[in-house]
Design a protein that fits this description.
The protein is of the alpha/beta class and 224 residues long. The chain has one domain: 3-Layer(aba) Sandwich (Rossmann fold). The protein is built from nine helices and twelve strands. It has a six-stranded parallel β-sheet with strand order 2-7-1-10-11-12, sandwiched between helices. The chain has a two-stranded parallel ribbon with strand order 3-6. Strands 4-5 form a two-stranded antiparallel sheet. 46% of the residues are buried.
Length: 224
């Protein structure tokens, strides 16, 4: 089964955009794929459930007919750090419900794209880091690098942290979050030289591009 964990150099740098593009790229190769957002903060009430826009985007990009609660087991209402949002709700994010939801999804698809929260070191709870979840799921990691001033440091620090946590960085995707960034190609060259994993693609600033169109910007090594 092809499954990956998508993390980022920060929050708001295009993890959901990259994850939905990956789902469309997998579908284009005939792979039944689904997205999962185990923990999401910042939800609105719809049809009797609290739902998150990023999780809904993953649901729309993946195989139809999957239960939202499996895609997003922890839908936390305030748009704050998950640990704080869970505390406000009087709960604590735990591994067991996430692993159960992942197992149910895995029975129905050929591939899962699991999107994390914030940057790699953003905690899920006072006792649970994203690295703990990735170890439990036994997944390789894809790093989304937000192309803006400072991205070199953020990317290299993230890659080092992933390695220090004993996990495998399988690749990285560049996301041009700043359309006016200077010397983009030079920065990409330096990232390619320094990051210990291949680049899976560069997503342009996507103000008018759909995830389907962005999927063409990606090259998934195992799908070549």
């Amino acid at each position: 089964m092809f499954s990956i964990y998508v993390t980022g150099t920060d929050t708001g740098i295009g993890k959901t955009l990259a994850s939905t593009a990956l789902l469309h790229a997998l579908a284009a190769h005939g792979v039944r794929a689904a997205g999962m957002k185990p923990v999401a903060s910042g939800c609105s009430h719809a049809a009797g459930e609290w739902k998150n826009d990023d999780a809904l985007a993953l649901q729309a990009a993946g195989m139809p007919g999957l239960v939202y609660a499996d895609i997003n087991p922890y839908a936390l209402v305030p748009a704050v750090a998950p640990e704080l949002a869970a505390r406000d709700a009087g709960i604590e994010v735990q591994l067991a419900p996430i692993l159960s939801a992942y197992a149910r999804l895995a029975e129905q698809v050929d591939a899962l794209v699991v999107e994390g929260v914030g940057g790699w070191a953003a905690p899920l709870s006072s006792a649970l880091m994203q690295a703990d979840l990735v170890r439990a799921l036994r997944l390789p990691v894809i790093l989304v690098v937000g192309l803006r001033l400072g991205c070199l440091s953020h990317a290299l620090l993230s890659a080092r942290a992933i390695a220090a946590d004993g996990l495998h960085l399988a690749g990285w995707i560049a996301s041009q979050v700043d359309p006016d960034m200077a010397r983009v190609e030079d920065n990409l060259d330096m990232l390619r030289q320094r990051l210990p994993a291949p680049c899976w693609g560069v997503l342009p600033h996507a103000s008018n591009m759909t995830p389907e169109a962005l999927a063409a910007c990606l090259r998934i090594p195992t799908m070549r």
